[in-house]
Batch of 2 targets.
Target 1
Amino acid sequence: MDGEERFREIIAADEKVEPGDWMPEGYRQTLIRQIAQHAHSEVIGMQPEGNWITRAPTLKRKAILMAKVQDEAGHGLYLYSAAETLGVSRDELVRLLHEGRQKYSSIFNYPTLTWADIGAIGWLVDGAAITNQVALTRTSYGPYSRAMVRICKEESFHQRQGYEIMMVLARGSEEQRAMAQDALDRFWWPSLMMFGPHDSESTHSDQSMEWKIKPVSNDDLRQQFVDATVPQAEYLGLTIPDPDLRWNAERGHYDFGEIDWDEFWRVVKGHGPMNRERMAHKIEAWERGAWVREAAVAHAAKRTAARSA
Amino acid sequence: MDTITTSRPLATYLIRHGDDNLVLAQRLAEYISWAPELEEDLAIANIALDHLGVAHHLLAYAASVEGDGRDADALAFLRSEREFTNLLLVERPNDDFAVIMVRQFLFDAYQVPLWEALAGSADTTLAGIAAKAVKEARYHLRHSRNWVVTLGDGTEESHRRTQHAFDELWRFTGEMFVGDALDTDMAAAGIGVDPASLEAPWRRTVLEAIADATLSEPEDTTVRVGGRSGFHTEALGHMLGEMQWLQRAYPGLEW
Ligand SMILES: [Fe+2]
Ligand SMILES: [Fe+2]
């Protein structure tokens, strides 16, 4: 049996494609693009959250947030390794990001303005990420699927911790409640945008579904997220900023309003509130570190030379 | 003072070491997402978390020893810079990666023998905290020493920056070994350690690494002290302003 036949069989049987297997070039390229975007998102996501580590209100919250940001760095590392199994190096992917030729999740182009934003990000953004990633544990590419299994466990911690921050604020003082509501107001719609365009608009969706890279569609995942999150907001006593949100008994799902797609595309195209700052921070950190990376290479070379001398 | 007649001196002693770890954790936290490699962001966050954990344990214990209603968070977020008693070394700003790693190395080389000694403290709670901290400190020391040698014996630029970091930080190292009456009392009671006794092992560790890194021992003989009595560099106030802001702006709330 030739590679192509075998590939089709693996996909049909819901088995996993592994790095040594034959795969169509389009499949490889789609995976590289998707895994790299995912890895970049983990890394860029360290910035909005890192923005509050030094100002976290208690020692416990500081430790939890620091551990969370550390986890995100770890997720970035697993995902870059998964991408490397497809024959591309991490340095190359980082270069593509810095040149603006690869993207990261648009959600991180929104600023974290108050402590409640750290709660809202954990609850909503990690919540949306889990919805997406639980589905991706069934993706057809083995290394990506296994990375998702590992990452999902940690993401669910993040989600719970974020919700707990929101709970304390929602039950706190008038100012804290207002802070929590304001964070929900600002992060609700961008969180729904995390699932991407409507299935009818999404250019990559059909082929990705056929190859089982993406086992569940954007709109289905978004619906799952809304259905899970609305009762959580009610429990907090907070109001989701959508006048069209209501339970539809017939569908057994919540109906919700239309996303502002102009905003979505504006942010994707680089014109969100923080796109410039996020990339500038990332590139500056990389450039500031150049002499350190050069030193590490030079030192390793001296060591090797000394050993073989 | 022959015996520890009140619990106040013990609390003061615990707070000093708690402050060292808290202030360093906060400095490292500022650097997360700015490291030269993703692996190093992860390592720095890890080290910061260890220091923060030790600080939390020491301050919580100090608060319970004080017994006047303050908790660890009150100690961390509601004292002014004149009440912070950390060593000046750990409050020095993150000028560049060489300064960050040399600062870490100089402090790790002090904390390893410190925790080794305190693991044998007559105060079993402090001994327990120290026994856990010493394992972490050994790992931190391996990491920072490794970078000191890599950077010192790397490129011309990294060598220059690392030598500069040693030269700049050297005047803050003497303070680690200058004891006061409280140190003497704590050592006499078998609870604490005479800081002067930590200097020889520290020097051995530091000079060995300096040699491996092809660097030179700084010639600066200035000994800048003041941290233990709340006489800080100007850098600390800005750090606390940021760290304590939320607790100060919204007093008395749960978070
Ligand atoms: Fe993550
Ligand atoms: Fe996360």
Target 2
Amino acid sequence: MSAAARRGRSAQRTRGANTAPVIELEGVRKVYRSGEIEFEALRGVDVAIDEGEYVAVVGPSGSGKSTLMNILGCLDVATSGRYLLAGEDVSAMSERELALVRNRRIGFVFQQFHLLPSKSAWRNVELPLVYAGVPRTERRDRAVAALERVGLGERIDNRPGEMSGGQQQRVAVARALVTEPALILADEPTGNLDSASTADVFGLLDDLHAHGRTVVVITHDHEVADRAPRNLVVRDGLVTEDRRFVAVGGVRR
Amino acid sequence: MSWAETLRAAVEAIRAHRLRSALTMVGIVIGISSVVLTVGLGQGAQREVEDQISALGSNLLIVSPGSSTDSAGVRGGFGSASTLTVGDAAAIADEDVAPDVEAVAPVSSSQTSLIAGESNWTTSLIGTTTSWQDVRARELASGRFFTDSELERGAEVVVLGPDTASELFERGSPVGQDITIAGSRATVIGVLASTGSSASGSSEDDVAVVPLSTAQAITGTTSTSVSTIYVEARTGDTLAAAYQEIQALLLTGHGVSATDADFSISTQESLVETANATNRTLTVLLGGVAGISLLVGGIGVMNIMLVSVTERIREIGLRKALGATPSVIGRQFLVEASVLGLAGGAIGVMVAVVGAQTLPALIDQPVSLSAVAVTAALGTSLALGVGFGVYPATRAARLTPIDALRSD
Ligand SMILES: Nc1ncnc2c1ncn2[C@@H]1O[C@H](COP(=O)(O)OP(=O)(O)O)[C@@H](O)[C@H]1O
Ligand SMILES: Nc1ncnc2c1ncn2[C@@H]1O[C@H](COP(=O)(O)OP(=O)(O)O)[C@@H](O)[C@H]1O
Ligand SMILES: [Mg+2]
Ligand SMILES: [Mg+2]
């Protein structure tokens, strides 16, 4: 299936579904404090993302893309503003509820992989299932299935140190999809990878999108951004552009 | 995440960081084993003294010479001169004056050398009367004790303690053999049975007992003073009455008031108490030293735990990002620290047990391990692990996942 065809399909579904947005940000601000110095990394962001969308977040370095992504992934909390995730107000949630949301609804892929070096591939992938309370045998089955899905069925017992960067990031993708989350977030997932591995990883993200997941990805890769049906451009802590490309007959205009 | 799951994860994490885990445990092992051993040493010493004293018998009163006041009114130090005489012993033995006294044995004791053939041995020579055997409740392993007529004529006979006998005679029965006591010849007529008190090599088993008159002849003294008078009360219940009788009798006999008493009377109970007071001081002292080593071990544990948690803040952040709640993280580190602490504690107790077996052979001191010390030691090691492991971990678990992930 070509990228263009996928884009066409999801664009149609987005138009037809007309559901409540899965992500809704209203006036989100984030202020970093280090001692006396305050820095406003997000200065009032309003964004809505519908279920099943594929969004590329682009912008210059230091513009606040990662800050935004961390808030979307509930890895960090906004200083002010509202964040509704599937209609629920995240800013009002306790630590416990946030952990639950991260576990059930979100799969996060980091630029630095963040795998546990002492654990084999499948033990890394099963971690979210451990916290979801899935029984041990089922965890292994599902972890192995996820690793097969990212093409690492042969490497389930290898530790991260025994794998290439591209393979490690595929393990991280397997870990993000093993809980079947509705929302996949990736912060420059290929920033540390060569072009072949980059193609692998975006292939996997495209595939997840094709299976109905909402995908938000930060990228500096113009090719990738150009292929995405929607681009959010972040500059100076604000979303300055929200470009939607409507696919007609498989051609983006 | 179930407890079993958490436990499995904890064991895995401990094995993944072998060196760090080993270092943590070494601190605990040293602290725990030294506490358990030193407390055991103190208690062993205490038990040994208790055994020795209880071997004396519970009806026993021991009259010892005390400070004396000379004609010029100068008080001599305790034990500076023996103020007790054979006459005092005879007075106490008078049934009319001291009806609650069963038997009396005056004892004069001194260090002497014994020679039997090629062997020689220095021990305490006890000159006493025939009632000594009853008063001290001693059995004979072989031969017999001396008789009243031997006592009267100062016969050259001697009864050896079992340890003395084996030192002097490697083979064969000593009974009937001649030995030389400080240059005077004497015939061995009996060997005492061991007191059986746990402390082997106690002085109770290393003695040479001769008639009082014979001892005076051997040491070449004409003095009638004695070192100790052992008194047996009729029963344990009349001990107090016998005490009163002896005290009144000796005060009158020596013409002194109670405040100037030149003798002291002790019971087994009072001896135990004095000994225990001394040993308690010893135990507290040793325990203090051991406590300091536990503290030092604990600081080591704290250091390594803090380093370990700092190193693992990124792991904590990742686990949180994947859905671990703060309480699950806290529980993970709690179980990890407990397993480390308990494993270290258990090894420490094992080291102490091995030490308790080997130390007595090396330093000739009994070590008695107490369940209380072991339990307290395990509790402490658990508390150390938990205190120094869980607190920093729960603090780290309160960071947002991204702050924890970004830390380095
Ligand atoms: N933890 C932090 N403390 C202080 N300033 C921060 C922190 N994280 C990011 N920043 C600052 O916030 C701005 C936005 O950062 P970030 O969201 O990482 O940008 P991007 O991902 O677009 O490169 C940058 O200027 C960065 O220096
Ligand atoms: N230490 C190792 N142990 C086992 N396999 C390894 C190790 N390092 C690399 N490999 C394998 O060798 C291949 C090439 O690795 P690498 O050159 O690092 O890949 P990349 O081009 O993605 O950087 C991969 O299949 C990887 O799994
Ligand atoms: Mg960034
Ligand atoms: Mg390489």
